[in-house]
């Protein structure tokens, strides 16, 4: 099921290369930390549970976990009954995900140019994975969400709240070259709306380092009867 495909050698924004290289470097130590933290995030798992229930109530279908990292969220979504698969920018992360969850599907790819047909997905999860996307590039990412979601499909985004542009030199015990961005929920909701997605729910919570937000939205299309 796993498909750790090499990333195409095409021109791309510098931030994507920096993010890929950095996560290839930190992959093993990142995996140890985030899988532990995920087990300690009941509110986040509750949002994933609500998202899963909504997608299934709307008939189900393929769900993409974008920026899936080591695959733990993809596996969690699958355990909730979804037909989930993962896509990540880092080939090393995809290798780890394939090794940890060999029955699931994982691929190398970018949220800025998804190798998926139009109107294909019942749902998208971007769980802390827009963290390294410059705010000016988010419209491109959200346009891809809207393009690949079927009418009435749902998206759940988790991100760190704030106004800072971070430039760490090390992370997870290794040198890194990526930047990171804290975002305001109102601005993310505005960008989703501009991309043609309607925000239907929002959760704000205190994180261990920064406040956290989850936004649930859906593409224009038929919704289930009340």
From TrEMBL:
Residues 63-153 form the Methyltransferase domain. Gene3D superfamilies: Vaccinia Virus protein VP39. The keyword Methyltransferase applies. Keywords: Methyltransferase, Transferase. GO terms for molecular function: methyltransferase activity. The keyword Transferase applies. One of its GO terms (biological process) is methylation. CDD domains: AdoMet_MTases (cd02440). This is Methyltransferase. It comes from Kibdelosporangium phytohabitans.
């Amino acid at each position: 099921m796993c498909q750790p495909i090499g990333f195409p050698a095409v021109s791309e924004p510098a931030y994507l290369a920096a993010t890929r290289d950095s996560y290839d470097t930190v992959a093993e130590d990142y995996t140890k930390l985030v899988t532990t933290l995920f087990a300690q995030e009941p509110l986040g798992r509750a949002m994933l549970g609500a998202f899963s229930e909504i997608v299934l109530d709307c008939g189900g279908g393929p769900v993409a976990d974008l920026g899936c990292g080591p695959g733990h969220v993809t596996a969690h979504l699958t355990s909730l009954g979804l037909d989930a698969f993962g896509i990540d920018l880092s080939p090393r992360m995809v290798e780890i995900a394939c090794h940890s969850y060999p029955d699931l599907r994982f691929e190398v790819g970018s949220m800025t140019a998804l190798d998926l047909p139009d109107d294909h997905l019942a749902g998208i999860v971007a769980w802390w994975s827009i963290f390294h996307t410059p705010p000016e590039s988010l419209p491109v990412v959200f346009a891809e969400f809207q393009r690949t979601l079927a009418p009435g499909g749902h998206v759940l985004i988790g991100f760190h709240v704030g106004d800072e542009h971070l430039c760490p030199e090390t992370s997870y015990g290794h040198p890194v070259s990526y930047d990171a961005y804290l975002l305001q929920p109102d601005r993310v909701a505005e960008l989703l709306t501009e991309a043609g997605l309607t925000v239907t729910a929002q959760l704000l919570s205190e994180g261990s380092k920064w406040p956290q937000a989850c936004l649930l939205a859906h593409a224009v299309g038929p919704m289930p009867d009340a």
